[in-house]
């Protein structure tokens, strides 16, 4: 998979891809992540990429021309499955979306700023709009990093144990069951006996029951 991120703050996106699982996925050649500074695609003085909105009102708006130039340049090299705009009013990211996007080959992610982008960008270029929650950030970079992490960890070969992702919270619309490790008893707190029994069919049934119970108690909306 190749992910191209269009941003006005490329330095903000360095750290997430220079550590842990994402770094390992890039080093293995499983995924490519490239950032593109939108200011490199403007001819205006001071590398301007935003302007006042027509009709008045507070806040600046990202202009269509530099975004058009950047997307057009990227599309000359390859076809893209999705061109995503990170925006608070997009569809809320969930595990189902991450699962489906992990199967794509080439993706562009546009990070919004200020009051957003000229609506013509959304009408002409964007194929999907995604939000990471009902709140506003100062820019779309952190949301883009969250989206990339959610997608990349699902790609075969990224996780050391590929079955791990299949038992994550939200897979099958259930919360994950509780997990324990050594020691079996700590300050009077004991690991459930069933997990020490070695009876794997019963352990699996216990985990299924726990996942169901936790979901009903903590996130009943997932079961609707």
Descriptive overview:
It is a single chain. This protein is α/β, with parallel strands linked by helices. It has 2 domains: 2-152, Alpha/beta knot (3-Layer(aba) Sandwich), CATH 3.40.1280; 169-223, tRNA(m1g37)methyltransferase, domain 2 (Trp Operon Repressor, Chain A, Orthogonal Bundle). 29% of the residues lie in helices and 19% in strands. It has 6 helices and 9 strands; from the N terminus they run E-H-E-E-E-H-E-H-E-H-E-H-E-E-H. The strands form 3 sheets. The protein has a 5-stranded parallel beta sheet with strand order 2-1-6-5-7. The protein is elongated, with a radius of gyration of 22 Å. The model has no long low-confidence stretch (mean pLDDT 95). This is tRNA (guanine-N(1)-)-methyltransferase. Residues 1-224 form the tRNA methyltransferase TRMD/TRM10-type domain.
What secondary-structure arrangement, pairings included, does this model have?
Elements lengths: L1 E6 L12 H8 L4 E6 L12 E3 L7 E3 L1 H12 L6 E11 L2 H7 L4 E6 L7 H6 L3 E4 L9 H12 L32 E2 L2 E2 L9 H19 L6
Parallel strand pairs: 1-2, 1-6, 5-6, 5-7
Antiparallel strand pairs: 3-4, 8-9
């Amino acid at each position: 998979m190749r992910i191209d991120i269009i941003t006005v703050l490329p330095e903000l996106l360095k750290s997430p891809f220079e550590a842990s699982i994402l770094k390992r996925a890039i080093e293995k050649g499983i995924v490519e992540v490239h950032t593109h500074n939108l200011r490199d695609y403007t001819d205006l003085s001071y590398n301007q990429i935003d302007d006042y909105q027509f009709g008045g009102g507070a806040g600046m708006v990202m202009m269509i021309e530099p975004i058009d130039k950047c997307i057009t340049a990227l599309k000359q090299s390859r076809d893209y499955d999705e061109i995503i705009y990170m925006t608070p009013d997009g569809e809320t990211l969930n595990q189902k979306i991450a699962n489906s996007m992990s199967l794509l080959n080439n993706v562009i992610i546009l990070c919004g700023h200020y009051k957003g982008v000229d609506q013509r960008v959304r009408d002409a270029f964007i194929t999907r709009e995604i939000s990471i929650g009902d709140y506003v950030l100062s820019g779309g970079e952190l949301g883009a990093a969250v989206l990339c992490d959610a997608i990349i960890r699902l790609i075969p070969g990224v996780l050391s144990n590929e079955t791990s992702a299949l038992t994550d919270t939200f897979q099958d619309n259930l919360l994950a069951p509780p997990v324990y490790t050594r020691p079996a008893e700590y300050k009077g707190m004991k690991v459930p006996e069933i997990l020490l029994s070695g009876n794997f069919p019963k352990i699996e049934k216990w985990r299924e029951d726990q996942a169901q119970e936790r979901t009903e108690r903590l996130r009943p909306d997932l079961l609707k």
